[in-house]
């Protein structure tokens, strides 16, 4: 490279020896006897020195500039790389933020989807629960309606049963009234007829007192009464019906007074009744009403005895002289005696008093309102038990055992203070089987 001479360059030759390097000076003048330098040589030498110096400076300048450029490029490269890095980081940050935003959006979408799904499930569950609740309420409503209907049906059935029993009771009471008005009053109004009937009555009346535990005696009495009744002209007005009524009153009176004292008296009396019914079926038109009048329990009829009318219906007697009701013990014994006669009649299985009548009586007592139950009910059932229980169980078997267990072991628990209830409970605890204690058969 050629450089121009600097403007400040002085062309005058400076011949000062100091301009020549010291070593060169030594080498030039110590070893050799070199010729003296000319001005041109010195000028040339100085120029060369300057050129060399300038070249060095230029090289330094070039090197500096090269280094500067390099550093500049490096800085620019560094800046570029830094920018690229920043751009890359920004891009990565942007992508990360976008990814996070997308992830967040996806999570929000999933949360919303999950919330929507849960809301739908909750709504479905709510609808299901509401449906189940409604179904339960409807089922409960239907069940309550069904129970109310069944309860009403049961009440209606009980009322119908009571009405049926009461209707039956009233029918027998009406029969007693009709006997009095249609027969007894007519006889009492006719002295001659009353006298004739009186003769027959006096012949029959002693016969009941002659009954014993002997079958032979029973047959004799039966034949005697049948002969007396057969002697009455069938066309005699009012006579036979009056006598039938008289015989039935005598039978009931015998049951009231004799059977309580001697329970075994129920069997010959019942057999006499059964014999007479076989020969004179019409006798039952007068007997059953008489039995029901004095002991309505035999058809399962019960009512409150808190009123005079109630006591009259249940067969209580009033003392004519004192106008007071009989003692409850006396009433219980008298009525239960009649029930014993009834029990044996069903045991004999007479067509007019089948064993089913005993079932009806016991079942109706078991279904009686507890408020109407008194000591006499248990007294009657206990007497019936000892009179007809074994035969009853042999006919109805397990069903009989259930019914008797209900009466003797369960129903009595509500009336522990009643003496007859205690007696009946003891009978139940002794056992309900074909081996139950009962009246012994009559002797031959």
Structure at a glance:
By secondary structure, this protein is mainly α.
Q: How would you describe this structure to a colleague?
A:
- This protein is mainly alpha-helical and 444 residues long.
- It contains twelve helices and no strands.
- Helix 4 runs parallel beside helix 6 (266-279) and helix 5 (239-258) packs across helix 9.
- The protein starts with 21 loop residues before the first helix and ends in a 14-residue tail after the last helix.
Name some characteristics of this structure.
444 residues, mainly alpha, Serine Threonine Protein Phosphatase 5, Tetratricopeptide repeat, 74% helix, mRNA export factor Gle1p
Tell me the name of the CATH homologous superfamily of the largest domain.
GLE1-like
Number of strands: 0
Q: How many domains in all? A: 2
Biggest sheet overview = none
Mean pLDDT: 85
């Amino acid at each position: 490279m050629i450089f121009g001479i600097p403007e400040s360059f002085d062309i005058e030759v400076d011949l000062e020896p100091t301009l020549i390097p010291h070593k060169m000076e030594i080498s030039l003048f110590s070893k050799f006897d070199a010729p003296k330098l000319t001005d041109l040589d010195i000028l040339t030498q100085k120029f060369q020195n300057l050129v060399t110096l300038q070249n060095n400076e230029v090289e330094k300048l070039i090197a500096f500039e090269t280094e500067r450029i390099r550093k500049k490029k490096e800085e620019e490269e560094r800046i570029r790389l830094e920018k690229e890095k920043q751009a890359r980081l920004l891009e990565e940050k942007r992508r990360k933020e976008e990814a996070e935003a997308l992830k967040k959006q996806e999570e929000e979408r999933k949360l919303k989807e999950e919330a929507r799904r849960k809301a739908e499930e909750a709504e479905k569950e709510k609808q299901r629960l509401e449906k189940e609740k409604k179904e339960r309420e409807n089922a409960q409503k239907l069940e309550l309606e069904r129970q109310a209907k069944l309860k009403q049906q049961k009440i209606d059935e009980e009322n119908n049963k009571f009405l049926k029993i009461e209707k039956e009771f009233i029918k027998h009471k009406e029969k007693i009234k009709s006997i009095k008005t249609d027969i007894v009053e007519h006889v009492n109004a006719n002295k001659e007829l009353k006298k004739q009937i009186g003769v027959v009555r006096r012949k029959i009346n002693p016969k009941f007192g002659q009954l014993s535990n002997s079958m032979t005696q029973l047959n004799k009495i039966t034949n005697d009464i049948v002969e007396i009744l057969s002697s009455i002209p069938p066309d005699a007005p009012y006579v036979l019906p009056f006598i039938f009524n008289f015989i039935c009153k005598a039978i009931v009176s015998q049951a009231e007074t004799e059977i309580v004292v001697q329970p075994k008296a129920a069997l010959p009396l019942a057999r006499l009744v059964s014999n007479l019914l076989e020969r004179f079926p019409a006798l039952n038109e007068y007997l059953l009403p008489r039995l029901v009048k004095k002991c309505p329990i035999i058809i399962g009829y019960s009512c409150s005895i808190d009123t005079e009318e109630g006591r009259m219906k249940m067969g209580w007697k009033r003392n004519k002289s004192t106008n007071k009701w009989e003692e409850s013990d006396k009433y219980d014994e008298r009525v239960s005696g009649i029930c014993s006669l009834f029990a044996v009649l069903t045991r004999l299985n007479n067509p007019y008093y089948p064993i089913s009548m005993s079932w009806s009586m016991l079942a109706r007592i078991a279904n009686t309102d507890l408020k109407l139950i008194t000591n006499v009910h248990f007294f009657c059932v206990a007497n019936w038990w000892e009179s007809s229980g074994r035969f009853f169980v042999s006919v109805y078997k397990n069903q009989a055992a259930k019914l008797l267990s209900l009466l003797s072991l369960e129903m009595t628990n509500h009336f522990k203070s009643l003496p007859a209830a205690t007696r009946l409970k003891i009978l139940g605890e002794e056992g309900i089987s074909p081996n139950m204690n009962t009246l012994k058969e009559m002797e031959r």
